[in-house]
Amino acid sequence: QVQLVESGGGLVQPGGSLRLSCAASGFQFGQYIMSWYRRPPGKEREWVATINSERTTTYATSMRGRFTISRDNAKNTVYLEMNSLKPEDTAVYYCRARPGVWSEGYWGQGTQVTVSS
Fold first, then answer.
1. Beta-bridge partners for 21
2. What pLDDT is recorded for position 78?
3. Is residue 37 very low, low, confident or very high in pLDDT (cuts 50, 70, 90)?
4. How many CB atoms lie within 10 A of CB 74?
5. What are phi and psi for residue 68, nearest 5 degrees?
6. Which of 34, 56, 97, 100 has CA 20 to 30 A from 26's CA?
7. CA 110 to CA 117: how far, in whole Å?
8. Which of 112, 96, 94, 114 is nearest to 104 (CA)?
9. Residue 109 Cα to chain centre, angstroms
10. Are strands 18-25 and 3-7 parallel, antiparallel or unpaired?
């Protein structure tokens, strides 16, 4: 059974940092494309970042330079390091796993990130 469990969310002040984790099980993690998405309050879900099996990374424009996606295949975990957080980064953050870009893949349940003073 595939499971993706996000953690690390919480309340942080503007300018602060958080590190999200997504622990995966039930599939060959190292061969999957892993991504982070987010859904801001009242808005559609949007793509944040992706890392493929070769550790090539891509980022949405507004996150580039502030967010870093990484993976630890030995721990079956993908991370999202978020720095210089802004109130507009407030959202539920989701982890996604796909065997290929053509696949819907699997989604986690999300973790809430709130950036507020």
1. 7, 79
2. 98
3. very high
4. 8
5. -135, 125
6. 56
7. 23
8. 96
9. 11
10. antiparallel
